[in-house]
Amino acid sequence: MHKVERLVINYKTLEEFKKFKEYGLQELSMLEDLEENIIENDSESPFYGIYFGDKLVARMSLYKVDKKLDQYFEPKRDYLELWKLEVLPDYQKEGYGRSLVEFAKSFELPIKTNPRVKSAEFWSKMNFEPVKYDMERDKGENPLIWYPPVSSDH
Ligand code: COA
């Protein structure tokens, strides 16, 4: 099991983020916030990652969605949205992806993710399953969900 850490948002972290394919609007807006001194070493970021030495080799973004906005679970409940899970090419298939997903599961909330193409086998190994397709809601995405095990003391 690799050590998962919450990422502190600063210039160094954003430099590391550039190595990941899914670098986009969210990262650019964090860069803007840094430049305008709105954030600095923000430790409340939604990003978690794994370092190999001082190199960030895997990351994901995780945030809690309030049950009022839930469109995936029945009955509605708070859940975690997991996205931007990515392991750098030279470090794939060494358990980094699994460690991040297991870390997300440790919050014991249901999880929803939109998988990247061709990652189906990984997600099925992580015990994520498809939700019933809803054209209005999913708009071409194929969301996957995971339910925490029902605790035995109920
Ligand atoms: N195809 C089939 N099985 C895969 C897989 C893949 N692409 N990636 C991982 N697995 C399997 C592993 O073999 C392992 O199985 P095991 O427990 O039976 O040994 C299990 O899933 C966990 O693998 P792990 O080492 O934790 O995966 P990872 O660290 O490489 O993370 C991704 C998985 C998909 C998040 C990561 O590879 C990634 O970011 N890939 C980039 C792009 C992408 O989505 N590629 C998909 C393939 S083209």
Tally of DSSP helical segments: 5
Spatial extent as radius of gyration: 16 Å
CATH topology, by name, is Aminopeptidase
What is the beta-strand fraction?
A: 15-25%
Write down how many β-strands occur, each being a DSSP E stretch of 2 or more residues.
Answer: 7
From the N-terminal CA to the C-terminal CA, the straight-line distance is 30 Å
* Widest beta sheet: strand line-up: 1-2-3-4-5-7-6
CATH evolutionary superfamily:
Gcn5-related N-acetyltransferase (GNAT)
Which kinds of small molecule does this entry bind, naming each only once?
coenzyme A
Instruction: Tell me the major beta sheet.
Output: 7 strands, mixed
Description of the molecule:
With 154 residues, the chain is α+β, with helices and mostly antiparallel strands. The protein has a single domain, classed as 3-Layer(aba) Sandwich (Aminopeptidase). The chain contains five helices and seven strands. It has helices spanning 11-17, 25-35, 96-105, 120-125, 135-138; strands spanning 5-6, 47-52, 55-65, 79-87, 111-113, 129-130, 144-146. The protein has a seven-stranded mixed beta sheet, with helices on both faces. α3 links the parallel β4 and β5 (111-113). The radius of gyration is 16 Å and the shape is globular. The chain starts with a strand and ends in an 8-residue tail after the last strand. The relative contact order is 0.15. The model has no long low-confidence stretch (mean pLDDT 91). Coenzyme A binds at residues 85-87, 92-98, 116, 118-119, 121-122, 125.
